[in-house]
Design brief:
With 312 residues, the protein is α/β, with parallel strands linked by helices. It has six helices and 17 strands.
């Protein structure tokens, strides 16, 4: 039996571990299938985390987080968690190989990942001009032209955001119709810096050793192709949250989730299940920023401490 199980070792999970152990919880175990750090470790440059003035790679940025958390007694178990169930007052963490761990409280911080288009050049140039975060990387393209791929609310909103620093934004969507809210779409159409390219599909992201040089697009009807010369391509074609561990044997979810399977929490990171908290990118309305995920983790840990104290 552990007092607190933390599932996921990104910024939210590590921050939760730090605050829980320093807050006096004796037996805190972080379950992460690899070395902690999260998807941010794949970022080539981080320069917007408060208090860190040096530009660092994601890997270098996250390395001291691990050391700091483990210093206060956080235990790391390298294991794949397949499912979380609850029987009575306690939770059961189900691992690969049939192993289980009982926990009095759980913080779920398994994050998520942006969907990829799968087009040529995308993987090779990921982090080298291909991005899924305008807030993170838009500044690098100040006064330059960029391309945005996608047709939902996020794509439109991020395209509008990019016009604050970019000279021009090409918005590429494979259909003439958009899934985005009409009012958001209207704002984009009224923005002189946004050029709509529909119905076009991205075919290839081109580049060299320095990074992205352009994107080749094809008209879905005429099959005519053209290349946009841009140093940055932002992809917003969906986001997968890693909430599979909440799926129960009967197909239901352990706690309340929205239509995208993001976990519904209040401002205290509490789910509708006592003792179960969610932090970071898996929760509803997550800003998907490292600093926000860290704050979520700290909040969840403080609430978990209060829950454990009240459960004695």
């Amino acid at each position: 039996m552990v007092d607190l199980a933390i599932i996921g070792g990104g910024p939210a999970g590590l921050s939760a571990g730090l605050y829980a152990t320093r807050g006096g919880v004796k037996n805190v175990v972080l379950f992460e299938k690899g070395m902690p750090g999260g998807q941010i470790t794949g970022s080539s440059e981080i320069e917007n985390y408060p208090g860190i003035k040096e530009i660092k790679s994601g890997l270098d940025f996250m390395e001291p987080w691990q050391e700091q958390c483990f210093r206060f007694g956080l235990k790391h178990e390298m294991a794949v968690v397949n499912q979380i169930t609850k029987n009575g007052a306690h939770f059961t963490i189900h691992h690969d190989g049939g192993k289980t761990t009982e926990a009095r409280a759980v913080i779920l911080a398994t994050g998520g990942s942006p969907k990829r288009t799968g087009i040529l050049g995308e993987s090779d140039l990921w982090g080298k001009g291909v991005s899924t975060c305008a807030t993170c990387d838009g500044f690098f393209y100040k006064d330059k032209e960029v391309a945005v791929i996608g047709g939902g609310d996020t794509a439109i909103e991020e395209a509008i955001y990019l016009t604050k620093m970019c000279a021009k934004v090409y918005l590429i969507h494979r259909r003439d119709a958009f899934r985005a809210a009409p009012v958001t779409l209207e704002h984009a159409r009224n923005n002189d810096k946004i050029e709509f390219l529909t119905p076009f599909s991205p075919i290839e992201i081109t580049g060299d050793k320095l990074g992205v040089t352009g994107v080749i697009i094809e008209h879905t009807q005429t099959k005519q192709r053209k290349e946009l010369v841009v140093p940055g391509v932002f992809i917003f074609v969906g986001y997968d949250v890693n909430t599979q561990v909440l799926r129960q044997d009967d197909g239901s979810m352990l706690c309340a989730c929205d239509e995208y399977n993001s976990v519904i929490v209040d401002l205290s990171m509490k789910t509708n299940i006592p003792g179960l908290f969610a932090a970071g990118d898996i929760r509803i309305n997550a800003p998907k920023q490292v600093v926000c995920a860290a704050g979520d983790g700290a909040t969840a840990a403080l609430q978990a401490i209060a829950y454990l104290d009240s459960a004695h």
